[in-house]
Amino acid sequence: MMKIGKRIVITLSILCMTGILFQTPIFASKIVQTDREINQLDEAGSVSKYHTEGIMGKGIKIAILDTGVDLKNEDITFKKGINFTSGEATDFADRNGHGTKVAGIIGARKNGEGLIGIAPESDLYICKVANDSGKVSFDGLIKGLDWAVEQEVDIINISLEFGAGDKALKKAIDKAMNQHIIVIASSGNIRAEGDTFKAYPGAYPEVISVGMLNLQGEIYAAEFKEKKVDMYAPGEDLTSTYFHNKLTLDTGVSYATAYASGFAALVIEGKRADGDVVNRDSIIKTMKADLNQGIDGAPWYIYTGLVLNIATFVGLILLGIYSVIYYRKTLPRGWPVRMIWSILIIILLANIIGRLMVYFLSK
Questions:
Q1: Looking at the predicted structure, is the pLDDT value of residue 224 above 50?
Q2: What is the value of pTM for the model shown?
Q3: CA distance linking residue 198 with residue 161, whole number of Å
Q4: 300: which of 41, 78, 128, 243 lies 20 to 30 Å off by Cα?
Q5: Which residues are catalytic?
C-alpha cells in the first residue's frame, strides 16, 4: 500500500512539474526593471527565452525607415545612416523623437544602462524618410526602400502610414520582397471609434501588417480586427529611448511594429541556426505562436497548452481526493489501482504529445 502511495506522489509531482515547465502564454507585455537597465519582456517569456538561449538578433540587418535617430544616444549604435528628406544625405539626425523611440525598442544595446531592445545585437541601418515634423512622402519612402534593398538587409521596419497606396511604392515593396526581405509595417493607429481605414504600405498583402495589444494581452481596439492585420504585438506603455539618453513610456501601433520587427530578428536568427525555412509565412506563424494574439487572433493550437494545464490540474485534484478517501479505507480494496495508473499515464502522454504538437506547428 505504501509503495503505491509513494509512486502516486512521485507521478503527481512529475505531472505538476510538466505543467509548470511548459505553460502556455496568456498575457502579452511586461516591463521588467533590472539594476540599471530595463528589458522589454513579454509575460509569456518568449523574448527572455530567446535571450537566455543567446539569440539576440546577431547578424540580422534591420533597416529603420523613420525620422532618423538621436546620434548622441548611448543605447543606440548603427551600421549606416542616410537622409532622404533634404539634400544633406549624411544628416540623418532625429529631431522629432519618433525614430529614436522605434530604434530603441528594436535594438537598444545591452550595455549596463538604459534600455535593452528586443534584438540588442542586430545591425541597425538608419534611413531618415520623415522630416523633423514627422511628414513623409511617397518619394522619400520609396528611396528608403531602395536603399535598404541595396544594403541587403533582412528586415525593413516602417512605423509610418499613408491613407492610400501608390504604384511606385508597391513596385518598391515588390522589389524588396523579391530579395527575400521581410517588410513589417504599421496597420495604422485608431484615431476614433469605428476608424478602420487601410494604412499603406501595411495594407499590401506582401507586407506583415501589425496591430496592437494592450498590457493585458488583449487586442487594443476592436477596429484592428476589421483591418484584418497579419499579427499583433505589444504596443501599450512600451519603454523606449529618447533624447538626452532618457527613457519614455509610449503607446501606439508604431511601437508595436517596432516590437514585431525586433522579435522577427530573433525568430530569423533562431530559424537559421536550426536550418528551418525563413520566409514571410514561417515568420508570421512563429510570431503568432510566441506572442499572445488576443481574442480571435491566435492560431487554434496556441491554446492547446492552456487546455492541457486545466485538464491536468482537474485530473490531479480528482486523483488526490480519491487517494485521501482510499487511504482512509472507506473504499473497497478491490478498487482498480491499475485504472489510476492508466489515467496518470494518459495525462502524462497527452501533455507530452500536445506540447510537442504545439512546438512543431509553431516552427
A1: yes
A2: 0.73
A3: 9
A4: 41
A5: 66, 98, 254
